[in-house]
Amino acid sequence: MKLKRNKEEKQFLLAAVIHGVMIGAAGVLLFFFILQAVEKKEGASDKVLPVNLPKSTKVESKSVPFYAMQYGVYSSSQAASDFLAGHPEYENVAIIPADKQFYLWGAISTSEKKIKSIVTKDSFVKPFRLSGAACEEKGLKSIPQLLEVSKVAKLNSSDSQSKLAAPVDWKAAVADATKASDKLELVKLMLLEHYVSQNDCLKIEF
Question: Which residues are registered as beta bridge partners of 125?
């Protein structure tokens, strides 16, 4: 009986040792996994997350179709000026630079019908498109849209419902043009001449 008891005690001790080893191994593995999880979490928190910065507002500028009352075209500004100097009856004709040439225009409008109604025997209708897409300044980008208005009073951007950005000197330029004439087509031409002659980014396309 004593021998049997010793054998049972040895088996119990062996089972206890094995059980202890298993628990210890499981504890080590559990600690290892917890350590790995903590390290991953800390590593993730150290990463710089991308910040969604607000995009800068862009002013879209689509080319706008217009019609001009054209008298002629010259290869140089001097030749165009010389012609006008010899024809005082063309006092309201403007020299418009476009595509390395200089056009003599007497009025512009978004309405072909309107230009056709005022052309003379010495002029004709010339369609073109005006674009401000190449301009960096928001006000200059808006020139084509600002010239689309149907009334002289609407040329004042503060009276416009479109809330378009306008060049810094827009109000002064409008005031000067409206002092010279109250005709919308001529006022638009003077504004076009003013801005196109000073800003290469404004493109006249045929």
Answer: 69
Pairwise CA distance, residues 43 & 39, whole Å: 6
Chain position carrying tokens 């040329």: 155
Output the pTM of the full model: 0.69
Is residue 100 left, alpha or beta, with left meaning phi > 0 and alpha meaning psi from -120 to 50?
left
Q: How do the pLDDT tens digits run along the chain, 206 residues long?
A: 444 445 555 565 566 556 565 666 666 566 666 667 656 655 544 443 344 433 444 445 689 999 999 999 999 999 999 999 999 999 899 999 999 999 999 999 999 999 999 999 999 999 999 999 999 999 999 999 999 999 999 997 554 455 789 999 999 999 999 999 999 999 999 999 999 999 999 999 99
State the DSSP H helix or E strand holding residue 140, giving kind and residue range, or none if neither: helix 138-141
Q: How far is CA 201 from CA 117, 135, 142, in A?
A: 31, 5, 12
**Are 131 and 144 in contact, with CB atoms under 8 Å apart?**
yes
